[in-house]
C-alpha cells in the first residue's frame, strides 16, 4: 500500500459522501488557462468584477502564497516555542509497479515553490493574487498520488544532536532540524480556498481532488493508525472532502464538521469507509496540516498515464 493513499476503491467519484460544499467564486477571469472564471454553483460566467463576501463570520488567513517562495505559512497564533510550517509537494515518486514507468512531477519532488499566475486575480473580499500553489504530475501506477500541502506547526527536533545543522520538514534550511507537531484548529468552523486544474477528465470535465486534514488518529506520526509500529497500511485515510476541480477557478468551502456516528453532514468532512483505520475520530485539536491530492485509480496497463495539475490559491479558515 502506498503512502498518501486516498482510497482503495476503483474510483474517487464513488466517494460521494466526502464531497465538499462548493461556494460562490470571487476569482476573476485571469487564470492559468486564460478561461473565464465561473460561479461554482451556477456555472455561468461572472461579470469580471469582484464582490466582497457577504456571509457572516470572520476569515483568518492561512496563506496567500505572496510573501515567500514556499512558506512559512501566514497563519497567526503559532508562537514560540513553535514555529510555522512550510508548503511541500508529495507523491509522483513511485516506480515499483512491474513494467510501469516512473512517475514525474513539476515542481520536482522535494523542491516545491509557488507558481506565478499569468495575470493577477482577485480572491476573498477582492484581494489581489499573483501566485498560487501548483503541483502537476504524470501518474503511471495503481493508487499513485500527486499532491501539495503544508504543515501547521513545528518545533525543534528533540532527537537531533547538539550542533546538528540542516532543515527538517521543509523548514527552509534552518540550522536546527524541525519536526511537525499537532496543532489545535478547533476554533474554526470551515476551510475556504480557490482551486482549478488544467487536466480535467474528458468524460467529466473535472479532476477529483481530495482536500484532507491528517490528525493524530489518521497520520502515522500519531502512533494510532499504525498501532505504534511500522505498518502504515491503515494510515493516511484522513478526514477530508473530495472536490471537482475544473479548468476555471472555483471557490470551495468545506465545513470542518464530521457529524456523529458516521452521519456526515452536507458540506462536511469524513473518511473513506472502505479502507484504513475505521476507528479514527476527527480530532480538530490535533491536526498536522492540510493537503490536496489527486490519485490514479487504474493499473499501469489500463490506459494512458493520468495527468494531474492541481492549483490552490488563498487558503483561509472561517470562524
Structural commentary:
With 319 residues, this protein is mainly β. The protein has one domain (12-155, 181-318): Jelly Rolls (Sandwich), CATH 2.60.120.430. It has no helices and 15 strands. The chain has strands at residues 59-63, 83-84, 87-91, 104-106, 115-122, 128-139, 145-151, 153-156, 178-181, 190-197, 207-212, 240-245, 250-255, 289-295, 306-318. The strands form three sheets. Strands 1, 4, 5, 6, 10, 13 and 15 form a seven-stranded antiparallel beta sheet that branches. The radius of gyration is 19 Å and the shape is globular.
Write the layout of secondary structure elements.
Blueprint: E1 59-63, E2 83-84, E3 87-91, E4 104-106, E5 115-122, E6 128-139, E7 145-151, E8 153-156, E9 178-181, E10 190-197, E11 207-212, E12 240-245, E13 250-255, E14 289-295, E15 306-318
Antiparallel strand pairs: 1-15, 2-8, 3-7, 4-6, 5-6, 6-15, 7-14, 8-9, 10-13, 10-15, 11-12, 11-14
Amino acid at each position: 500500500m502506498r503512502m498518501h493513499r486516498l482510497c482503495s476503491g476503483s474510483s474517487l467519484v464513488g466517494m460521494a459522501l466526502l464531497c465538499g460544499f462548493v461556494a460562490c467564486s470571487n476569482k476573476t477571469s485571469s487564470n492559468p488557462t486564460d478561461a473565464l472564471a465561473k460561479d461554482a454553483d451556477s456555472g455561468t460566467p461572472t461579470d469580471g468584477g469582484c464582490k466582497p463576501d457577504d456571509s457572516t463570520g470572520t476569515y483568518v488567513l492561512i496563506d496567500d502564497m505572496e510573501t515567500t517562495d514556499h512558506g512559512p505559512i501566514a497563519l497567526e497564533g503559532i508562537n514560540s516555542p513553535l514555529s510555522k510550517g512550510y508548503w511541500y509537494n508529495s507523491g509522483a515518486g513511485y516506480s515499483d509497479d512491474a513494467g510501469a514507468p516512473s512517475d514525474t512531477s513539476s515542481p520536482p519532488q522535494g523542491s516545491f515553490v509557488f507558481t506565478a499566475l499569468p495575470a493577477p486575480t482577485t480572491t476573498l473580499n477582492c484581494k489581489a493574487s499573483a501566485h498560487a500553489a501548483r503541483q502537476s504530475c504524470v501518474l503511471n501506477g495503481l493508487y499513485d498520488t500527486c499532491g501539495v500541502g503544508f504543515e501547521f506547526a513545528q518545533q525543534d527536533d528533540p532527537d537531533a544532536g547538539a550542533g546538528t545543522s540542516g532543515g527538517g520538514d521543509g523548514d527552509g534550511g534552518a540550522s536546527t532540524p524541525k519536526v511537525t507537531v499537532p496543532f489545535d484548529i478547533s476554533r474554526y468552523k470551515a476551510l475556504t480556498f480557490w482551486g482549478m486544474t488544467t487536466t480535467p477528465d474528458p468524460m467529466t470535465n473535472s479532476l477529483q481532488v481530495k482536500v484532507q486534514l491528517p490528525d493524530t488518529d489518521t497520520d502515522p506520526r500519531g502512533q494510532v493508525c499504525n498501532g505504534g509500529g511500522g505498518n502504515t497500511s491503515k494510515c493516511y485515510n484522513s478526514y477530508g472532502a473530495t472536490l471537482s476541480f475544473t479548468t476555471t477557478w472555483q471557490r470551495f468551502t468545506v465545513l470542518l464538521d464530521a457529524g456523529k456516528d458516521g452521519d456526515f453532514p452536507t458540506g462536511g468532512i469524513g473518511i473513506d469507509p472502505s479502507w484504513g483505520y475505521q476507528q479514527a475520530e476527527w480530532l480538530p485539536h490535533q491536526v498536522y496540516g492540510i493537503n490536496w491530492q489527486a490519485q490514479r485509480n487504474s493499473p499501469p496497463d489500463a490506459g494512458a498515464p493520468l495527468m494531474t495539475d492541481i492549483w490552490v490559491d488563498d487558503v483561509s479558515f472561517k470562524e
